[in-house]
């Protein structure tokens, strides 16, 4: 569903049985998929960021032990 169709039918969707709950679920699903905000193509993947954080934590732990 593209945004134009969504907004044209928003009232119909909201008034449907369980419509508000379904809209909340849709918004949550879109948020988890990263579809609600524009993305910077220069951002690194989360997996790389997690590895960098783990490496930094190991360095900090080694410094604390000294």
Q: Provide the low-confidence segments as ranges.
A: none
How many β strands by DSSP? Answer: 0
Percentage of helical residues?
55-70%
Mean pLDDT across the residues is 86
SS-based class = mainly alpha
This entry's quaternary arrangement is single chain
What gross morphology would you assign?
elongated
Strand content: under 5%
Main beta-sheet annotation: none
From the alpha carbons, calculate the radius of gyration and give it in angstroms.
21 Å
Describe this structure in words.
The chain has 66 residues and is mostly helical. Helix content is 70%, strand content 0%. The chain contains 4 helices and no strands. It has helices at 3-8, 10-15, 19-32, 46-65. The protein starts with a helix and ends with a helix. The model has no long low-confidence stretch (mean pLDDT 86).
């Amino acid at each position: 569903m593209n945004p134009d169709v969504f907004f044209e039918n928003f009232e119909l969707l909201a008034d449907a049985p369980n419509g508000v709950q379904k809209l909340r679920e849709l918004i949550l699903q879109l948020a988890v998929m990263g579809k609600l905000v524009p993305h910077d193509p220069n951002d690194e993947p989360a997996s790389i960021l997690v590895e960098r954080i783990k490496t930094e934590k190991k360095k900090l732990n080694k410094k604390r032990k000294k």
